[in-house]
Design brief:
- The chain has 2 helices and 9 strands; from the N terminus they run βββαββββαββ.
- It is an alpha/beta fold and 157 residues long.
- The chain folds into 2 domains: 11-50, no CATH class; 59-156, 2-Layer Sandwich (GMP Synthetase, Chain A, domain 3), CATH 3.30.300.
- It is elongated and about 65 Å long.
Length: 157
């Protein structure tokens, strides 16, 4: 494999057979395990609206988390590249998914709301451009077909 190719593998195993499989819509659990070698098992299910277990992660939450994580990691990289010292980063991300009459659905948009703290107050004015650059290099944001917006705030200290 070349350095410009990265492959990822995991296993998803349905654990929700209550004895009769999918013989009825409400007769099975949406529970499943996401297994990645060497990491703790991620307990997944459907969104509770779709008969999932609210104590488990659902795919929609994980997509939102992937976008927020990717932006943060891209932003930290871009900050280093531009000599900006970030001392804290938090994000409160939101996503909007709409259902269609045929039962399908899709995300319409995601809004990331990162709050970045920098060491030097003089660097606060650079942050909007750094968020823009981070969005351009974020692998996950570049892979989705809906807008990923940013409502960033910042402070120094």
């Amino acid at each position: 494999m070349s350095l410009d190719e990265h492959r990822y593998e995991l296993s998803v195993r349905w654990t929700g057979n209550r004895g009769d499989g999918t013989s009825s819509y409400r007769g099975y659990s949406r529970d499943h395990d996401v297994e990645i070698p060497g990491l703790p098992v991620l307990k997944g299910s459907a969104d509770p609206t779709f008969h999932g277990d609210r104590t488990r992660y659902n795919p929609e939450q994980l997509l939102l988390a992937a976008l927020a994580q990717c932006h943060m990691l891209s932003f930290l990289h871009v900050a280093v590249k531009h000599g900006v010292v970030v001392t804290a980063y938090e994000d409160s991300a939101e996503g909007l998914m709409r259902l269609n009459k045929d039962g399908s659905g899709q995300f319409e948009n995601v809004t990331l709301k990162p709050h970045v703290t920098v060491a030097d107050p003089a660097q606060l004015e650079k942050l909007p451009e750094l968020h823009h650059e981070a969005n351009k290099v974020c692998f996950i944001a570049r892979s989705v077909n809906f807008p990923v917006r940013h409502e960033a705030t910042a402070s120094s200290g």
